[in-house]
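Q: Here's a chain of 258 amino acids. Please give me its 3D structure as tokens.
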Amino acid sequence: MKGCLRRGKDVVTGASRSRLSSPRWIVRTTLKSVANGSMSSSVEGGMARQVHSSVLTVARGLVVALVSAFTLTAQSHAADVGQAVVQPVPGFIALAPIDPANSFEARFGGFAHGIGSPESGTVDLNAEIVSPRLFNFPGAWSVLSPRIQMGVLGNLGGRTSAGYAGFLWTIPLFDRLFAEAFVGGAVHNGSQKGSPNMAALGCDPLFNVGGSLGYRFNERWSVMFTFDHMSNGMGIFGTNCGRNVGLNNYGARIGYAF
């Protein structure tokens, strides 16, 4: 009889241990215990160990899953980046320097007139025509070939107006930016001896020098900022003109190649 009871107790104990290892039993027992407010110390310890073990297992699984997902995402992103670098972007065209200097150009704009002279505070309207390059030098040497420029600066305030002509060099810098330098002569209707409202220009004609920095929107249209200086060159060339105040003009112009 005692043997039967002992064997029955062992069977019950084995079944209890089997239930203790079941997650369903853990959850059901935990909820029942919390609801009843009673939990024996032995069951509490066993259940805590089971819950702790289950939580660690789930945490390890989540960490492995996250690491795997991050690795796959990084590999996919690297492959996409490599593919984007190798393959050209559809519809993208690299911008090559635009150099329409082998065409005629018409330019129009305005200048702040005679900065620093008695004629300052007035405005000039400017119109100019520029020829293609005179010589067909090969490659990069083409920038050494001059162009012919002719234009007028008409003062709107009754001060000095001038007509000018000379040589101009157009230098493409990069992409759509370009620079220019010019040198020539100018004739004017200003004062040679000067007055309170007129600069003492000393001679007629004058030297005309300056430069521009510009940007080309396309092969036809451009915009440029220009510095223009007119004087008799007495300080450099020793001309016998008596006075040499000179005129410094700063302006902006648009250009059209045709």
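Q: Can you summarize the key feature?
A: The helical segments are 2-20, 23-36, 41-86, 234-237.
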